Amino acid sequence: MKNNKPALALVTLSIAALAAAGCGNSMSNSSSGKSDSSPAPSTAPSSSSAAGKKEPVTLTFVISNTVDAAPYNKIFAEYEKKTGNKVELQALPGGDFDNMMKTRFSTGDFPDLFLMQPGTKQNVKLRAEETLKEWSGDSAVWSRIIPSMKEFQTTTTGKIYGVPFGSIGAYGVFYNKDVFAKVGVQPPKNYDDLIESAKKIKAAGITPFYEGVKDSWPPQIFYFTGWVSNVDPAIKDAGVQKLENNQMKLADIPELKDLFMKQKQIKDLGLYQNNVLAGTYDEMQNLMGDGKVAMAFMLDGIIPQLEKKFGKPFVTDKLGFFPFPSNTDAGTALMTPPNQLMIPTKAKHAAEAADLIRFMISPEMVNLYYQTQPGIPIFQNATSDLYPVQKTVKEFIDAGKAKVNVQNRLTPTFADFQKTLQTFFIDGDVDKALKEFSTNYEKDGKAKLLPGFQ
Amino acid sequence: MTTQERVRLIILELIAVALALLILIPFYMILVNSFKGIRESALFGLSLPSVWEFKNYKDTLQQAHVLRGFKNSFLISGSVVVCVNLFASMIAFVIQRRDDKLMRAIFYTFICGLIVPVSIVPTIKLMGDLHIRGTYFSLIMYYTAVLLPFAVFLLVGFMKSIPRELDEAALLEGCSFFRLYAQIILPLLMTVLVTITIVVMVSVWNDFFGPFYLMTDSTKWTIVLQIFNFVTMYSTNWGIVFAFMVLVVAPILLLYLLLQRFIIDGLTAGSLKG
């Protein structure tokens, strides 16, 4: 018979390991087990309520993985140098982010602070009045932020539950300038002009448009950018307000139906790449960089990606931008407001988290952020080295030819729009897609118990 | 055997080998793409890299918390292996040796556990009520509960093949029940325990949803969850992701290769009535 000592040893060892695992829970949450031997004196730029505190803490910061964490990590490294406090960054998948936050809130498992999509519409999801720190009285914070952004975060009752952070983003048509020069076309003056240019590009043997249907999210960009140029001028802000209260149906807006028809037209004319259903965001970047694709309806997240893949000179010299043209003019640029930082009132380290936010919006940190990730600033006197593409967007904003993404203006979301569009690309049924789009929007309003939807 | 038959067999053998090699294609793809740059790796091709990028591995290891993730993965999967082996062997010993109505009912209850899926929300609630939510202990117990039925099922089957005469002889010699289990039965179960170890280790190591939903404290996240440090919706460097995958898969693949001969032994053990 075998010697049974190993078996016994294994059992003993395992019980010891389990005990250790059990004990590990009650240990402090210093992630590396290495405590800071000499925390620097707290010099957070505020009347620090956490000042004079001896024990460094670790704050949890939850972020969606649609956001690039690089600039945040840099800021947190500085924060740690200054205060000794660590920040533990948790990236959660973007698709489930909202639901996961809601779950954590309902189980009382609050992060110390988190980055949320912009706007007051988020307050409904998180029951902000009961759960989140209110910022409207913090003049030190708001003196740093440009008024329009403050306005965007303010509820009708004058409350603010999130501090905007980041930069103003943009959606529109990104194009390869070399291809345009080679074919001899210019950024379009109106929508027909765009289609004519696309036909010329196709005749020259280059794919005019690329759509990443397989990745499911890219085709939506066409509608958001098309909305500000075509639907907004028709229904105006009053119309958007009616949509908010369900006094108007999405399916009843002819200009919206027209957008579906326009996308179908591009497909029918063969102006998308071959096998459009297999298109991916990654391939879009590669082909556009190589000059095999002329244009794409895209968000500005493509800029850093193209820089990584094709170098900075490509982005500064070869990448162009224009808004989705309307039927009569060059169209309106789409702005996306920056995300917002929020703090649950019941967070374990809510006071330190508020200090961290004040630290993040200090001039040095804001500049550090824009150095890492150039963008149109939202802070007073902040400078950012903008890419030419972003300069173009800024010109539109300064000329008053820019509008915030409709998704950020409405409380209900365009639920399952990605699936609707994938099906639409397969069957090309405009009425069916529009009806589904409209119905899903109402369903979402109903699920959120919003006035007018019940 | 005629030459024709022999040729037919050789051809069949070759086809079988070729089919077996198919399984290696994804592994090869991951490995080869982990050495490619950002543009080339995004194509998911099977060709060799035009430029070998070893930097991907360096970047991966420099990324936040990879080592911590490994530590958590080893701690959690190791503890679960121990718990499952220990508890399942004790349960199986009692169930098989007593073999009365009650024990049979308990055995069938465990079998039900093989079929019933895990329900996350009540699990979170239960952990909250027990005040263990978000601890290593809770996750270890969760996996133990999920994997026990399989282990019990396997061990009860195998226990039948261990002759009762051994127990009787031991008891006559004045051996206590626990000593009988620990010193006589347990060593005989080693083949099956190794099988269970592999199956448990692989399933815990690769599991994504358990820690994702039950563990909100990212300092206790396993290595698999660290993938979110690399994959983002709008910007993914696939070269680095593949390098990360290679690192994650390597330990478990190694374990599997070293112990895989036991798996077949263990799974078929007790299946024959002798």
UniProtKB/TrEMBL annotation, chain A:
InterPro entries assigned: Bact_solute-bd_prot1, SBP
Domain of life of the source: Bacteria
Keyword Signal tagged: yes
One Pfam family linked to the record: SBP_bac_1
PROSITE patterns in the cross-refs: PROKAR_LIPOPROTEIN
Keywords recorded for this protein, A-Z: Signal
Chain segments carrying region Disordered: 27-51
Signal peptide coordinates: 1-19
Matching Gene3D superfamilies: Periplasmic binding protein-like II (3.40.190.10)
PANTHER family assigned: ARABINOSE-BINDING PROTEIN-RELATED
Protein name: ABC transporter substrate-binding protein
From TrEMBL, chain B:
Subcellular location field: Cell membrane
Sequence intervals crossing the membrane: 7-31, 74-95, 107-128, 140-159, 180-205, 238-259
Protein topology in the membrane: Multi-pass membrane protein
Coarse class of the protein's main subcellular location: membrane
Secretion signal, residue range per the UniProt entry: none
Gene3D superfamilies: MetI-like
Domain of life: Bacteria
Domain ABC transmembrane type-1: 70-259
InterPro entries, per the entry: MetI-like (IPR000515), MetI-like_sf (IPR035906)
Keyword Plastid tagged: no
GO cellular component: plasma membrane
Gene Ontology process terms (BP): transmembrane transport
Pfam families: BPD_transp_1
Presence of the UniProt keyword Transmembrane in the record: yes
Keywords recorded for this protein, A-Z: Cell membrane, Membrane, Transmembrane, Transmembrane helix, Transport
Family named by the database record: Belongs to the binding-protein-dependent transport system permease family.
PANTHER family: ABC TRANSPORTER PERMEASE PROTEIN MG189-RELATED, ABC TRANSPORTER PERMEASE PROTEIN MG189-RELATED-RELATED
UniProt name for this protein: Carbohydrate ABC transporter permease
Organism: Paenibacillus aurantius
Lineage of origin: Bacteria, Bacillati, Bacillota, Bacilli, Bacillales
